[in-house]
Amino acid sequence: MNPSDRGREGADHVVDGVEEADDPLPSRWVTALVAVVAFGFGFGSARHAADLRPTLAGTLRDPVAAILAAGAKPAAEAMAVGAEVFRAHCASCHGLEGQGLIGPNLTDRYWLHGARPTDILRVVRNGVPANGMPAWGEALGSERSVSVAAFVASLRGRNLDGKEPQGLLVD
Ligand code: HEC
User: CB–CB of 147/67 below 8 Å?
Assistant: First the structure.
């Protein structure tokens, strides 16, 4: 169909042989239509919010960054899990606040293995066995690995007094 045809059909209110009537809708229908649209809108927004929740199983490309970017509640839940894991499994080497002990200071801006969320998650999962950082992927599983990586990423830039900087300055 060329554009001028479409214009003519539009003007005649006939599309593919179906005629458009201009009669006003019964008000009951209008009310029902408004209700359905409003419901759909609310439902759609709720679904949308649910979609923004990071899937901790790691189906997203960068689940740690997704947590950091997520709204208050899902992020707070993941951070709480991450903080718990950190206290239980990481603080012995990295200090209770992440200020460093045997392992590097995780609150400064210097990083040995990269400061991106994906870098942190990789180190948590695979460790750096040759340098004394254990691999945690298997012991913690996906959800807790991602959560603790998000927690570590959130420590960055706190600059707590602790172990001297190691690695490269990352802004
Ligand atoms: C047995 C001691 C030990 C434990 C426990 C430990 N780490 Fe480490 N971690 C290290 C050491 C040592 C390094 C430095 C590795 C290197 O020099 O390459 C390190 C490095 C890291 C790094 C990279 C830092 C950088 O500068 O790039 C991250 C992130 C990290 N650890 C997170 C964790 C998390 C999260 C946990 C707990 C799940 C944890 N570590 C538990 C010893 C430990």
Answer: yes
**Tens digits of residue pLDDT in 79-117:** 999 999 999 999 999 999 999 999 999 999 999 999 999
Q: Which residues line ligand 1 (CB under 6 A)?
A: 85, 89-90, 92-94, 102-104, 106, 111-113, 120, 123-124, 128, 131-134, 136, 148, 152, 166-167
Return d(Cα 153, Cα 90) in angstroms, integer. 14
Residue keyed to tokens 């990071």: 54
Instruction: Provide the whole-model pTM.
Output: 0.73
Ordered by where they begin, the domains of the chain are 3-52 (no CATH), 63-169 (1.10.760.10)
Give the atom of ligand 1 at the shortest distance from the alpha carbon of 86.
37
Q: Which residues of 2-27 are buried (b: 16+ CB within 10 A; e: fewer)?
A: eeeeeeeeeeeeeeeeeeeeeeeeee
Q: Identify the band that residue 10 occupies on the pLDDT scale cut at 50, 70 and 90.
A: very low
Half-sphere exposure of 95 (CA within 13 A, CB side): 17
Q: Give the mutation target among 67, 89, 94, 101 for probing the ligand 1 site: most ligand atoms within 8 A of CB.
A: 94
CA 103 to centroid of ligand 1, rounded, Å: 5
